[in-house]
Design a protein that fits this description.
The complex is a heterodimer. Chain A is α+β, with helices and mostly antiparallel strands. In chain A, about 20% of the residues lie in helices and about 30% in strands. Chain A is built from two helices and six strands, in the order αββαββββ. Chain A has helices spanning about 20-35, 65-80, and strands spanning about 40-45, 55, 85-90, 100-105, 115-120, 125-135. In chain A, the strands form two sheets. A four-stranded antiparallel β-sheet of chain A has the order 2-1-3-4. Chain A has a two-stranded antiparallel sheet with strand order 5-6. In chain B, strands 5-6-7-8-9-11-14-15 form an eight-stranded parallel barrel, surrounded by seven helices. Chain B has a five-stranded mixed β-sheet with strand order 2-3-1-4-10. Chain B has a two-stranded antiparallel ribbon with strand order 12-13. The two termini of chain B are about 30 Å apart. Classes of the chains: A alpha+beta, B alpha/beta. At the A-B interface, α1, β4, β5 and β6 of A face α7, α9 and α17 of B.
Amino acid sequence: MITNPTGRLTQGQFSFLPDLTDEQISAQIKWALAHGWAVSIEYTDDPHPRNTYWEMFGLPMFDLKDPAAILMEVNEARKTFPDYYIRVMAFNSTRGVESPAMSFIVNRPTNEPGFGLSRQEGHGREIRYGFHSYAADKPEGERY
Amino acid sequence: MDNNGSGQITDAAERYKSGVIPYKKMGYWDADYVPKETDVIALFRLTPQPGVDPEEAAAAVAGESSTATWTVVWTDRLTAAELYRAKAYRVDLVPNTGPGTNIEAQYFAYIAYDLDLFEEGSIANLTASIIGNVFGFKAVKALRLEDMRLPVAYLKTFQGPATGIIVERERLDKFGRPILGATVKPKLGLSGRNYGRVVYEALKGGLDFTKDDENINSQPFMHWRDRFLYSMEAVNRATATTGEVKGHYLNVTAGTMEAIYERAEFAKSLGSVIVMIDLVIGYTAIQSMAKWARDNSMILHLHRAGHGTYTRQKNHGINFRVISKWMRMAGVDHIHAGTIVGKLEGDPNMVRGFYDILREPHNEVNLERGIFFDQPWASLKKVMPVASGGIHAGQMHQLVHYLGEDVVLQFGGGTIGHPMGVQAGATANRVALEAMIMARNEGRDYLNEGPKILDDAAKTCAPLRAALDTWKDITFNYASTDTPDFVPTTTGSI
């Protein structure tokens, strides 16, 4: 089990807070929509800190402006992948930004085994580090 | 002989007769001058010596920061001297100074410089002109460089920030909230092994970054290699136990450029995402490191060590907003720029002005925030301001309100001084931040409801409760020495 104070993966904006309720998720979606950002849902069973590309649960919802409809998509993703990490993201296309503006986790596996740290010792006490997700030992789709 | 209305002597033979003539008459004052789009403009706060005409003092500053010397030289006539002369073109009495006040008269003097006076891509060259000689000049009693307008054509000759806010966030995988950091304390005396302990605890507890302090380089109690090795062990351990990207600003400041590069290369070989330098290494060294950082995919943190010696006094020195502009051009990714609520100097409006300069694609004139010029940034990347010095979790609502989202909030004492330990201190800060961002996004009046939001978050977080109780009454309410000088009804400059 992960031993940091939360006992879980701390990526995203709200991992140190209790799990978000549907109402709280809706409020965050409204914030994104109010700024004209496109909301997107992504999922993975490989939450390595350098795994940038989680799978997309459909394209970013550029044209969907209804928070309730977006929340339905979130819940659809949770139903489809109940034991995966799922994050809600918002993309800001403004010139000079053109990058994610939000990212928070809305679903997690019940058991989060965390990561091992491998050390390869080199010259002059230099160490090369690697992170290894215990869950990723199993094949894709069977990890949690 | 004053026959063009500007005070300049236009008859060439008369103008270049050997001897000493006033700067105004030499051609460094032209009230009718309209700055070109490609001119560099400098705004000085000028206190003339008693009896010196402010226009003459401004002309003297223009002269000494461009082509002039104390006497007439015939060799000017071998050059396109008219072009190379900087032109003082406007002098305004600073509001609330001069007759009827208890402060001697000060003037805002506007001086325009042709682009050809400067070498491309060199802060050293720019500053050698603008602040090179004039600050010790006898004709002015005191002089302060308040602001500059840098033309787009000139900005395009600078690399700008190696990484910038957007790419930094993408690399760190951290969006939609301020970044959290802490400076390891005590800043001197810890062994490498003990030092790394603080790094590990703080990062595991929830911070994104920890930081070397400005004066931790390679002293007898801890040589730099040890600090780097133990700190990176701590960073990687914390990354493994959180699943989150973490970093430690390894200070590569050293006595020679060769040593700086050696340390930076070692930091790179250890997989660090960020290195740090101090402002005191100098403008050229900073630009060299900005280039190195761009070439090596490294974030470059700048600690503004030493700036208080020349930025703090209102009548003499350089305003920090000018340093902010130079550092954005020089190419750093992070710079300490004030906290508003913490222990270090900073009038709220002025600090917000610094943040605007560092983060906005375009600054409009905003006299309240001390921004005198319209300044497009020509797509130079944005610098992440760092708020550090006497801030704690109980101020989170104010910090988010005043400083916004693109900022590193650095809680040194506010993490390491926590009664339950470093890890708990870090957790308190992270929980406070996440709760405040959530409340803000929910549309709540988080500035006024801040204490309540924090109290509620503390119900499920004992470390936050302890932090709030420990520091609940800590504020630093001193009058700022540097405040904006403007009368709200005056119109903007240029």
